[in-house]
Amino acid sequence: MPLKNGIVVDADGHIMEPANLWQEYIQPEFKERAIRVVRDEADGDKLMIDGEILSRVRRLGGVPYAASGESVNWDVLDGLSHYESYRDSCHPASYDPQARLAWMDQQQIDVSVLFPSLGLIWPRAVKFEPDYINAHLRAYNRWIREFTEVNRQRLIGVAQISLFDQREAVRDLVELREQGFGHIMLPLMPPDSASCFGSEFDDFWRTVQELGFVVHLHKVAIPHQLNIPHGVTMGGKGNGRFFNHVNEILAAQMCLASLMDNLMPDRFPRIRFAFLECNAGWVPAWLDRADESYEVLSESKNVKILEAPPRHYVENTDCFFFGLSLAEDVSRMTSIADRLLIATDFPHPGSSITPYESWRNRLSTLGESDQSKIMGLNACRMLSHPPTGAA
């Protein structure tokens, strides 16, 4: 049953980058070295970065896409006699904007915020060569801009950006705004750099605020705030994928702590941050701890501290938003009901083939007002998107 006078916003959808995206959209001097997907019929296509196959990605593709939207974990498709190409394994709605809009209509989704897929992976594996990395980020931005131009009211592209050089990053922000972007992912940072929220990056964040960008912090693309070398993952020897999967939300918690520690809500009160695919159930307990720390540390004159407890900024301002998981018990998060967002994660493995019904069922214990907020009205405030109802 559709929401009454409601709007449905998918705050975290994904595209699947075309195999030749970077070769076609990158500046000429990097075309020969551009990231690409290479065909492998015997074991599934592979991602190649600067001439080397990326070992972190087992395979790309393998079986034809399901018209239903059901996703397949390509990693587990061992022993097939033939592997379909990456392109033929991707749902057309993941790379064709008209197909995406048709899928959204079918799923009763009015607006989708779109993130990369391979673009979440390769920045963690590429060698630190700023010009090379930036060329690929800008190539993706050119492509996603064309994708969303089909309907910019319903398709919201999130641009990728780095903070390797602050002056260059500021110029990139200005150019992105001129191109129509209003959303960026948390910027990539140099290895062993300070927190991107430190005062040395004030020019960047001042520009973000002045130009009205929303900053998205997406799982696996969030700097973890730990002093470990580039390319090193968290976890001791003997810990496997379960350990890593459970603890992926820790990066969001540390990032939120860094935001508060560096007084970002006071220094730049108009910037909106969205934490996505990191769950939200931890937020109320985190705020208990954060407020306790605030009270303890505020007694010291030598500790920089926010003007108000962290809870104030999360619960009473539109500075922070959090994407929900379908596995979470929303009834325990009523204190942050105005900050919660739904997400499809389409077309990634595990995403629901009927996201609207799945979310309505998950939120059914809440009142109609809270359901409408979480299904889309909260996201409208985050996006500064007018709640005009169904498209």
Kindly state the mean pLDDT as a whole number?
92
Major sheet strand order: 7-8-9-10-11
Terminal Cα separation, in Å? 16 Å
Give the SSE order as H and E letters.
EHEEEHHEHEHEHEHHHEHHEEHH
Question: What does the radius of gyration come to?
Answer: 21 Å
Strand content: 5-15%
- Structural class assignment: alpha/beta
Into which percent range does the helicity of residues fall?
25-40%
Largest sheet: 5 strands, parallel
Total DSSP helices: 13
β-strand number: 11
Q: Name the shape in a single word.
A: globular
Low-pLDDT stretches are: none
Architecture overview:
- With 391 residues, this protein is α/β, with parallel strands linked by helices.
- Helix content is 34%, strand content 11%.
- It has helices at residues 21-25, 86-89, 97-106, 130-148, 166-178, 202-211, 241-247, 250-261, 264-267, 282-297, 310-316, 355-362, 368-383; strands spanning 9-14, 36-38, 46-49, 52-53, 111-115, 155-157, 183-185, 214-218, 272-276, 320-323, 340-341.
- The strands form 3 sheets. It has a 5-stranded parallel beta sheet. It has a 3-stranded parallel beta sheet with strand order 1-5-6. A 3-stranded antiparallel beta sheet has the order 2-3-4.
- The two termini are 16 Å apart.
